[in-house]
Specification:
mainly alpha, 2 domains, 22 helices
Amino acid sequence: MNKTLRISFSLKNTYRVNSILYSIKQIPLIKKIIPAGIYGVWGFKIFANIVSVFKEILSAFLGEFFYFLCVIFLATKLYNNTAPDDLFLHIIFFLSIIGSFMNSYLFNPSKEMYYGIILMRMDARMYALVDYVYSILKLTVGFVVFGFLFGRLVGLQGWMCLMITPFVVGLKLTSAAYGLYYYEKTGDINTKDKYEKIQIVSTLILLAAAYGLPILNIVLPKWLTILLMFIPIVTGVISIRKIYKFRFYRECYQQILQDVVFQKEAVTTVMRNLNNKLISTDVSIASERKGFEYFNELFIKRHHKILWKSSKQIAVICFGLILTALILIFKMPKVGEVLNSFILSRLPWFVFIMYAINRGTSFTRVLFMNCDHSLFTYSFYKQPKFVLHLFRIRLREIMKVNLLPAVIIGMGLALLLYMSGGTEEIINYVVLVLSIPLLSMFFSVHYLTIYYLIQPYNADTKIKSATYQIINIATYVFCFNITKLEVSTQLFGVMTIVFCLMYCLVACILVYKIAPKTFKLRK
């Protein structure tokens, strides 16, 4: 057991350290001064090990912290008609059931698991048990700490807070044992695909029970929730024997790890299925344009479903939310006052909203998978004038896709402002109608520009650029933090318009100067 534990952690740590060192080598400027043999340099390995340990600690605590804070604790603040402690346990009860069958921790494939069980021929049972116990221990520590902390904040008694952890662990153990029992009966561990529809329906029902029932003033009382929690605790204890005594771990993991072994074939299959389902094969599709315009129009027509489906769905949702807000304004005048104040002082919030709904990343992924992936081999495709010309054409198309919901939001905000009491400065209406679409244009330019300047995908359509990921994280952090600003709509809107126009100009210059050197297939 100890030897397996040591090798298991060594494999995980080695894989993570090498991944960190590889990511460092992909950062511009830094990669030029880093030696080619970075993987053998003692100082770099120590640094990567520290980062790996820090990442592991974060994974053990950060996820549970945000889970309790955002999904449970803050959710209890949305209901004023129920006791917060009852509601806290009520939500945890139903969400934990969802988590138990969505992820039991025992059947999660990973590369280090493939290296250990398949390549190194380690004892599959020992490896599986060590890995599973470690996952359960991390879950236990996180739930004990944050379950107790947030439980006490809502007024829950200490012993009730401590009941949450064995309840959740019991559910995980029971779900894992059921998966093993199912394998013994059927010889199939991959139950997810077969019962996907059942899982989706069950998840929706449990989510409705967790968050919908409190709206109807229906919440499980504490005594009943605690009583029900004892059931999975008992079944979990019983399940330990099944998990420990199970004899077919190698066969199970050979079946599970097929996706890792045949990774490239799986990616190819997924791409082929996606093409068959969403890309039009209508031979009558044609264009009367010439050059890159002809090429682009055919691409857009054939990929219309992929490019426009989500945009149309978001537009419908936005329209529905605006209509709902209008009804609330008429029915509840206080809602109108809050909305009026919000629109006039919190326009920065819509930077984050436009960031969230922008389809820039999906657009560039489709471009790479179904177009650029094949054309990178042609030298003319990288000539500066052609790169910039095609960039402009694609920018026009991605703006069209993203402008649909943006225009609805901009006009909807102006309408909501007017219907909720209005404003004496007419310029505010103009700013709302213009600034939201321009924010959409900014993100369209942003994502297409970094795609051209960095091109993060390799032949297997995997992102292999640390710089690309850093920029995406920085974009998220910037958009999230800007929501904290409280500034007049007029001032922020004008600043947004000027910034977006300047950014578009700079982006075109950078693409023309740099993209011919960087717009290529990654290895």
